[in-house]
User: What shape does this take?
Amino acid sequence: MPPSLRLPSVLSSTPCGAHQLCRSTGQSSRPFSTTLRHDHRVTRARRGLFRWLSLQGENFRNPLSGSTNYLGAYDNRSGVLRRVQEAELRNTLERQNGEAKPEKTGEQSAEEKSKIPPEEPRDRVPFPQNKSFLSQAVLSEELREEIWSRVMKEGQSVREVSVTLRVEMSRVGAVVRLKEVEKEWKRIGKPLARPYAQAVMSMLPQTPFDPSKPDAHGSHESINDLPVHASTGQQIFHPTSESRHFTRLDAAKVFNKRLLPADDRIPHPELVIQHRERVIDGLTVEERKERAELRAAEAEEKRERIAAKQAAAEARVKKIDSGRWEFRFTPINADDAGKDGRGHRGIGWRYGVPLYDRSRGQIKIPKSVG
Amino acid sequence: MSRKRFHGLKRIIPRIRMTWNKYNLYNLSRLPSPNPKGTYFQQKWKAKAATRGYHGEQIREKQWQRMFTSRLNAVVPMDHRYLGENDGSELAAGRGSGLDRKPDWGDDKKPKSKLQTPYMHMTYAPTERRLDVAIFRSLFASSARQARQFVTHGHVTVNGKKMPYPGYLLNPGDMFHVEPESVLFATGQTKDKEQVKTGRELKRARRVANTRRAERRTAKREKALQAIANKKVAAELAAEPTPKAPRPVMVDETEARKQRKADLQELVKQVKAILENKKAPPAAKRKQDLREINREIKGTMSVLNRKPVSEIEGSIDVLTSRLTHLYPSNPFARIGKNAKSKSKPASEIAKETQSSTPEYTAEEKQKMREAVVTSRENPVDESKPYATPWTPRPYMSAFAFIPRYLEVNHKICSAVYLRHPVARPGLAEVPTPFSAEQMQLAFNWYLRRR
Assistant: This one.
């Protein structure tokens, strides 16, 4: 938006002694006020802003169709896309080198000029000063639909879908949750914010998915991320014998007695085992299948054990439903407070033990929502 | 005192804010690369001030200091093939036998590996856990402050429950939802003056129609109630035979005055019956009218013995007629209902064009159908607080990115906070406009020993 009509040249030409008065008489709603109107003064800074907005800033006013439109993709001086500049430079170089076939390039250029070259990762930098933050791709609508149908319709496990589509397990779960809500809205006829979603998705880089070629799907993100454990932050000089077969397991033990090796701390340890069995151990398909089933049975047993434990803990809580509230009574032991009455598992207020509930700096807003 | 500017232009090193404002975009474009000038303390101070102006500017400094942690989360992507083929001993194998590689002591000729983990960019990762910041990052609000307002105004739910605290720290797996109307308002183009005016008029007309409808409904209800009350009174009258309808010419004036007094008392009784009806209490306006009538009845009663009988009779007639006129259904109330939808929605226009022009190819028909669908989903509605049909606000695309720790479904304006942000080789997940050096200085400022 250009600055509103308050040109300094006009103001200076008026033969008025009280300069400020003249200035304020123009469009002001308070014609007799002599106060300087700071907010509308045309300063050099504001001129610079509007100059930039009318030249380079014009690129950002509306989204670029078929591409992202970040500050880092443009040359700030000229306000032209870097990739367009480079393509032009390349074209001119080619023309200079081989002028033997100019008619062919002439035909192509008409089509190509309207098209901008495809974006690269370096064009996805929203903050030019920070090169280590990129706008990373989000799941496309088709990919989300595919994830939902694989989990909910075909009954595949989240782990399986995560491996085949190369999407993090937590993301798979979240996509299914959100899709379920979306379908519910559609079912009850609640209006979706579709125009908004379309506009936003057109501005973001996306991981495409072609339903006709599901096997050719590329990776969305790395699914085997090993979290850096705090105890591996230190450098340790650990002398061992040269002949010792010092593996990752031993290294983990050196860092921390209870630290597991990387093989067990990644989200998909089964991929490592499968690869080892296939390539290193050279097992046949039947053997691998058998082992996989064994592992699955083990995992299932473990899961059931945990579920049973949880159910038992749940059963210990006595629930009384009063229509409006559900009262839950947990059995407690008065001896938990300990001999001195200061045990951390003790319940209720005890003499001499400070209660910090009302003191400053205590978090009083909920920490989790069930 | 004037308020300090949020998006200032004066500073040489401008303050960058968490907004989609065009001033902010301009400031971002002219943000100079940091110049290490001054003492170490000064550098840290400046870096802290600049970064805090962006990250959690709405949070008090003490609050942020309590949130700050020197533990920075990072991950290393592992290749399962490598893990399967090697058990880790290969890194130490041959050490001391001449097999170990020469260590790289920062050879200047070689370009340094780009894949260093940018730990320092994770300094402000704890603020990304806040609900208001997460809403801004999911592109549901045009600034962190607006997101905060949405939360405090009760437009946000977390896991299906209303969450009025912008400082709520999201846990991995939390699903938050913002009212789609608020989101469309925040991210859509603003209305111009005329649109605001027409919208206001439309809203006023709707309000009037609504109140009229409500009045009609209450009037109907009261009419029914009055019929019941009348029946009651009639029954009472039948019980004690005091003739009311035929007003015989009284010979004796005192007798006539007594009769008029009884009439007035009966009127009071009726009014009282309507006023004290608990099942269907009359509307406030109606109550006022009734009270007015009551007052006048009492006034007439007080002058009963002073004024001539004929005058009192006239006033009683007026009062009864007023009481009966209060209730008939208003024939003018229905006007304006059909005149409501003056501006035809775009979908109808599109339909008309479709029906009027025959002979289209299948492709064109498909396109037209799509156009109809979009116009139905994105109609012209002046009563909305944003310009309709909805279009994204200017300069939004420069700020449109979604970090990987969020999974957003824009159709339902909901998102899931998957995990805490992490750094990985070459990439940091916390969106920040500042360079690594500045972030490091800020990080050092917040370490306990500086």
